């Protein structure tokens, strides 16, 4: 391991720790202990929502979901996105050009060597993914979400 790679790893670790500390200090309508989250969520959901992990691209069935309906937070059930704003981004993750009003919050994520905009559930603070400025019209945004962070309910 080179000195540069060691330094980069250390910087990423401390940046991620700072992001998690920021999330832990913010108050959300749904606040559960780590043990309660672990009981409520599947291991892969816990890793994404509570530990800011990222699922493998192409691994979520929600990426291929084409039916009309809505996407909600897998942690607390809060509605997040409508299927009307979903699009195929070619990234391997479910992508949307706009969330529902008041559904998500954002914060700066410095866990990599550059700043990104993290997206989290406005109700429980669960990590959903990131938003980028390379999406389609009308917003030009790409909300690149982890399928493990969401559930889907087909329209009736």
Structure description:
By secondary structure, this protein is α+β, with helices and mostly antiparallel strands. It is 25% helix and 26% strand. The strands form 2 sheets. A 6-stranded antiparallel beta sheet has the order 3-4-8-7-6-5. Strands 2-1-9 form a 3-stranded antiparallel beta sheet, with no helix packed on it. The chain starts with a helix and ends with a strand. Its EC number is 1.8.4.12. One of its GO terms (molecular function) is peptide-methionine (R)-S-oxide reductase activity.
List the topology elements:
Layout: H1 3-25, H2 34-40, H3 43-51, E1 69-73, E2 79-82, E3 86-87, E4 95-96, E5 104-109, E6 116-121, E7 127-132, E8 142-145, E9 150-154
Antiparallel strand pairs: 1-2, 1-9, 3-4, 4-8, 5-6, 6-7, 7-8
Pfam families: SelR
Keywords: Oxidoreductase, Signal
Signal peptide: 1-23
Question: What attributes does this structure have?
Answer:
156 residues; three-stranded antiparallel β-sheet; Metal Binding Protein, Guanine Nucleotide Exchange Factor, Chain A; 25% helix; alpha+beta
| Element pattern in H and E | HHHEEEEEEEEE
Q: Quick one: CATH class?
A: Mainly Beta
Largest sheet, in brief, is: 6 strands, antiparallel
Helix count from the secondary structure assignment: 3
The chain-level structural class is alpha+beta
Instruction: Look up the CATH topology.
Output: Metal Binding Protein, Guanine Nucleotide Exchange Factor, Chain A
Mean pLDDT over the full residue set: 88
Give the domain tally. Answer: 1
- How many strand elements? 9
Our measurement of the CA-to-CA distance between the termini, rounded to an integer number of angstroms, reads 55 Å
- β-sheet strand percentage: 25-35%
What share of the residues lie within helices? 25-40%
Low-confidence stretches: 1-25
Give the strand line-up of the largest sheet. 3-4-8-7-6-5
Under CATH, the homologous superfamily reads Peptide methionine sulfoxide reductase
Estimated radius of gyration = 16 Å
